[in-house]
Amino acid sequence: MNSIKEEETEQRVPLMPSALGEDHSANTHIPYADDDHEDSPYSQQNGYHLAKKNPRKMSLSDRRNVELSLHIEPQGIGKPHIYDAGPETPQTAIDASPTTIDTPPLPLPRGLRRNSISMPSGLNALEDLEALRLKHQMQEQEPVVEEDKSTSLTDSVVDDISGSVTISVPPEINVPRIQIQKPDDDSDDELEIHGKRRDRFRTRRRASIAPLPALRLNDKEMLASDFDAYSVASNQASITSVNSLASLLREKMQAFPQMIRKKKRETKDYKIKIFVIIMFFMIIFLIGFAYVGYHRKLLTYSYFEKIKFNGNDRILRILSRDEKEVISGQLGKTIGMDNKPFHCLEDNRKQDGSVCMEWNGIARLYMNFLDKDVFRCYTIKWQSLSAGNYPTDCYELKRNNGLWFGGGITKSREWSLSNDNFDFTPFSSGDLKVHQFGNGVKRYFINSIGVAIQISEKTPLHLSINTTTNEFCMRAQNDDFTFVNHLTELPELEYKICTTDGMKSLHMLMTQKILWDGLKVSDMQIIKSLMFEPVWRTPHSETMETFNETTIYNYSEDLIALGLPLGHILINEFWQENVGDFTVDQKRFPNLFKTIDLLHRRGFKIVFTIQPFISTDSENFKEAVRKKLLIYERHSERSIPALTRYKSSSSAGVLDITNNASVYWLKEKLEKLKADYKVNSFYLDLGTGYNLPHYYQCRQTLDNPDMYAKLFTESLESVGFIGVSTASSVPKPPAFLSTQPLNSSWDGLKELMSTVMNYGVIGYPLILPGAVGGDYWLNKTMTKMISFYSLGQPPEPDEELYIRWLQLMTFMPAMQFSYLPSYYKGDQMKKLAKDLAIIRQQTVNPVLDKTLSESLNEGVPLIRPLWMLDPNDTSCLSISDEFSVGEELIVAPILDPGVEEREVYLPQGVWKDGIDSSLRKGSRWIHNYKVPRDKIAFFTKMPDKTRF
Length: 948
Prior knowledge:
Structural class: alpha+beta
Number of helices: 18
Oligomer: single chain
Number of strands: 45
Strand content: 15-25%
């Protein structure tokens, strides 16, 4: 093989088209992109001045001091030609003819590298090369070692070190062997591995395949397929060389794996990006942690362990022991947000460890903390410093933070305060027909998740629920009646918030306990007689003339004929001629002592109803005025009594129970009644807070109107009574709290059930419900107070209503009758009454007897809502038409007309069905449970080990 060495001149060797078999004159003088000699023939022939700032680097042959040759062995040519490229030659041309065609070269953008080579015509088309490539790929390849690649040129492997490309063909295929001098390049596209330069686009996997065409643009080498605008010449050359569109497609397909590998190499930067992102979030976390930790430490130091209070926004949050928020709200709602707090002066601080904050000239706030291990209590106290400011605190009623109960039954009869809605109204007992709260109230509110609020009796309390937002609000504000007595110069709001792990334990801690303290054996006998025996209330009419001894005697005869247990006969206030006489009316009851003696011998106990009101028609009124025993008008002499109206008395004075002389005078008259007529006990009909005279004034200032009923009950404990009509604190047993008078309707039946459960929640365990069938009848809604009217006996209730009412009363703490079952025609009602009496005697009374000691000792109610059985069961919270007797008996009454089936939910455990005696699994609903008209659904809890 002959070798021709090219002179080191500025002249370039053209590619002769005759040697390749076709005309490639258009590309014969295309320079390499990094060939930038200003005096090159290419630049001189075309008039281009290819100037660069840096001169061309030394070629690979110069750096290594070797000569790189291009070997061409065309088919059909006897002599091979060898062209030697000098050190300064940037490219190698293939010349198959002695002549040179000086065709003007195709101008290309500066910086392009030639990425295609015209193949000789003797290769017999592309099919042979493609077949050879496929065959070579199918063969098992030996791994290429980086250190040995400089010498492995025998298998047509591109030498990334020497810079030349060799294509070898098996001998049986007569294809010329072509070795192309690769220009030296120090561009960034070459990688240095183990001290050697390596083409960026080459990998071990592709070591046996020719390099892909490449461009060099802006000093960056890229695949020609990456940027089509600069690969036109290359693509055109490829298409021209093979004269087929398939060549271009194959070239693109070959470039695709290289592009993927290149992108993979480029995506190595993701590690840096991930590191930066992680560092960013760590910095944010550390800053937030430092901020929260600083403020938490500050608040803990200032505001105890589990209370978080922002003085500027006045946001209060109380946490449980496990750092869970149990209550949150905003304090001082009436203080503008632009007012900032200050620490109180030394003279205004307390020495009990309270934190004191003051809003200058507006209000002063005290916060204190008491930890008793079992529960924690936080005391909040506001003092108003200006006449126009009313301290107001509001707490959120969140459903996810449980439901709120307490206060007493409200006008809407809602089961939970969380579902109620009313604007600020004085917190006082009243008549639900016209007032917001009923006859039993208590400044105690409890949440099902274990947080309770207890408000001071000295606070002129106004409440609001869900008026504009879902909040429970308390306000201290004096008015002209309920809180007319200014206990402080300016209103003060004081309350405490207590938390513990469970609602049930908190209720036992917050309610009044040890009710058995001071009880005598006779008192316990009265309690059990009220629970196990009915209370028979004598019927009455609008006028008292028809009520006499015969009425009482005949009523007792009907009771005996009924065959039910005997109990207490309750005689209403008409046993006297005028309310407040405290003597028996001799005209209508000339021999009442004989009648009472007969009833005693038959087994009845006699109870008289008394009231603190003295009618102006009574002889005692003159005596009481003369002795100044009555409540007098405000801002007047004590000799001028304040008058009011109540039930049958249209004008009456009220005994001043804060006057010791009044208490002694009343006790003397009641003791005489007991001695003369052998009366067993009394029932105190005290009215409500709104039944006091509007401008009342007592010898001793009352905190609020409900204090009157409390003092009256405490003053007459030695006299003995079985019940009270109104209460703001738990009366001492054996006294039961009576429900308010109920309308003889289905709404009255539902109200009875809600009232008994609500009173149990706020701490009244002993409840005396109204009469079976209702206490009065009104077919219209009243908008004014009607309690001074004498509401006569209601007409005979509907039979179905009476049956469902009797079924419900069977499971109440006590039963009271006015209308008797025997008044209905037929024997069905009598039989039903006897069957229910058996259920009460055999099933209900043992549970009541067992639960009584727990109620007297811990204050828990006898009748309980289901959520008291399982505070963690969310289904129990929303159920208002079921209740439990103690923890062993669940009752699901029918409260609507014409209904004989209902949905029943049973808490966890195993329960025995009271209708068919079947066993039922708890923690689930019973759908479409059948309850016939003569049956009531109740379930008795079985032992935990019971199995089906």
